[in-house]
């Protein structure tokens, strides 16, 4: 028995020492992996906001409790969609770009920043907006070329998958509703700018070799607790202005992406329909074993729609539910880990009517 254990020990030692690419306890052939680069806002932020001065953070209890047992800066009780995608793709957790200056980009890196928008004006001063995230990506690409040479870097960036989820904050940030910038434009003009900045980003990544993109439309924005709480009298109704902007955005996005698919040769898109995936589940909560889809698990005020979870921003008072996985929303505006996982599965392997023309699994295999 002891001999067998010793044998196993030495075997593992030799095995790990010779494995150049040990991921989740499995040895994968070197350079066989596809890297994952992530852009966006809080839905995808693994903790970038911890590394610069902002009040938009989630690096304190009870964020992260369900999975990490400490708060990483993720705006939920556990893992976020990119964590699940990385797991399904046999990649390690993709780290926040701002975490370290000693970068290793071979598995990819995450640039997403909580509260960021596609427009520089959205939550300006508190976030790293899409353009800043793109400039980080360009720095990373340059560094990689210096490190491994043009040819290997080109292979890495052209095989990589790029996830971009952006735009919600341009429409639903409580600051947006009253901002003078927003009111300078018609809704159509405003949406056009958001889409223009998103497609510009895709084009820039394409120029650096990127071909495979995971992209997302908007769900019913007006129904998130923080938006519902803006409706006078808190009647239970959704905040129509936000939903309206979401509809305009989705129509314009769909058109813009169709154009890109024609213009950019070799482009492969996984377009996930958040509107469809979320409305089907929000309308049938029992079927997906949710007990509460209207109120956040953690927060205060109507629908727990005030961003007070953790008690770090002014008022220390907040309420916390006992079982976050009964809830669709973890806090005033962020979905729970259970919801994140459910959506990640649909993004990874959903049928073309929900994630298409490719799903992420196919993009990683392509
Ligand atoms: C917007 O401004 C109105 C009028 O000043 C105010 O009542 C409302 O609370 C503000 N909304 C937000 C989200 O700040
Ligand atoms: C990007 O957003 C800015 C405002 O931040 C706007 O002036 C510009 O026109 C937008 N770009 C496109 C291509 O729409
Ligand atoms: C979501 O889909 C429904 C059904 O197709 C549609 O009526 C609604 O306008 C869509 N909402 C958004 C925000 O795109
Ligand atoms: C999407 O396609 C799948 C498989 O073809 C089907 O089972 C499902 O009902 C479709 N969903 C919707 C909302 O159309």
The number of helices is 13
Distance between the termini: 45 Å
- Sequence stretches where pLDDT stays below 50 over 5 or more residues: 1-5, 7-16
Oligomer: single chain
Mean pLDDT level: 91
Domains, number: 1
Q: Count every beta strand, where a strand is a DSSP E run of 2 or more residues.
A: 10
Largest sheet: 6 strands, mixed
Order of helices and strands: HEEEHEHHEHHHHEHHEHEEHEH
CATH class: Alpha Beta
Q: Give the overall shape.
A: globular
Share of residues in helices: 25-40%
Model description:
- The protein is α/β, with parallel strands linked by helices.
- The chain has a single domain, classed as Rossmann fold (3-Layer(aba) Sandwich), CATH 3.40.50.
- It contains 13 helices and 10 strands.
- The strands form 3 sheets. Strands 4-3-5-6-7-10 form a 6-stranded mixed β-sheet, sandwiched between helices. Strands 1-2 form a two-stranded antiparallel sheet.
- The longest helix has 24 residues.
- The site of one 2-acetamido-2-deoxy-beta-D-glucopyranose (NAG) has 7 residues, from helix 10.
- This is Lipase, GDSL.
- Keywords: Signal.
Quick overview of this protein structure:
The protein is of the alpha/beta class and 366 residues long.
What are the main properties of this structure?
two-stranded antiparallel ribbon, alpha/beta, single chain, binds 2-acetamido-2-deoxy-beta-D-glucopyranose, Rossmann fold, six-stranded mixed sheet, 10 strands, 366 residues, 40% helix, disordered N terminus
